């Protein structure tokens, strides 16, 4: 078995889907499921069809060996992460597993919003495309993961380089434009801090994107947003998404600029009864973070990724998903 699952004797726990965002993408992610798993394929095609002509190009770049637009470009990484997160969510539901709660990281929150019936899939797909095409005009920049607490990095922040995400007690994502982000990163490395570039050509969760992000507000105002039908812990507030927030176009349009508070949100999620955490997207980045949480270390909650950690052949991808299905259908409450 290629997917490391919890012990077979584990007690049933309510399922919480963790939906990853920028940085989780990689070439070939989940392509082994397309055309093989009927539910996954149908859900992915829902997104591509909703996008119209651009959806065909996105799908071709995702499945092709020589994409016309690189995976880390905002018009590919964001929309494909949204697509795969959503399609995997529908796949899990098709197994008869009903998630008890959702938590998305960055763009994963948009996928969570569809799974929670805040937006229809068609509306959300078009909103995502409107967002990414606007952000494509943004300044060059990126994100860097630093092995340090957010407070420890405060003396180094300047020139629009900010804390873009708080992922774990000692994992902070810095975001900002170049050359400033590169300058801050060099200083941190000189101080002995471990820094890793997050795959992105856009400075997500940085104030330099604010003017472009704000222009998406009318598009959000033009669609109907409903209160979440499932509990959705927002990665931006570390609290349940309220009906008022769900109906606020400014709330949604601000996401590319706002700081992601994944660790506080995970802390909120795991503060009560045990959960079966399921990483519902490409990679195992959120699983690695969640395994550091005291509730997981103590055995009260468990972590299960659906897909391999990175690029893998089709058989490995399918085997991992099949192993996850076998475990979840037997051990989810």
TrEMBL record:
GO terms for cellular component: cytoplasm; plasma membrane. Keywords: Acyltransferase, Phosphopantetheine, Phosphoprotein, Transferase. SMART domains: PKS_AT. Residues 18-311 form the Malonyl-CoA:ACP transacylase (MAT) domain. Gene3D superfamilies: Malonyl-Coenzyme A Acyl Carrier Protein, domain 2 (3.40.366.10). InterPro entries: Ac_transferase_dom_sf, Acyl_transferase_dom, Acyl_Trfase/lysoPLipase, Malonyl_transacylase_ACP-bd, PKS_NRPS_Biosynth_Enz. GO terms for biological process: DIM/DIP cell wall layer assembly; fatty acid biosynthetic process. GO terms for molecular function: fatty acid synthase activity. It comes from the Bacteria. This is Acyltransferase domain-containing protein. The lineage of its organism: Bacteria, Bacillati, Actinomycetota, Actinomycetes, Kitasatosporales.
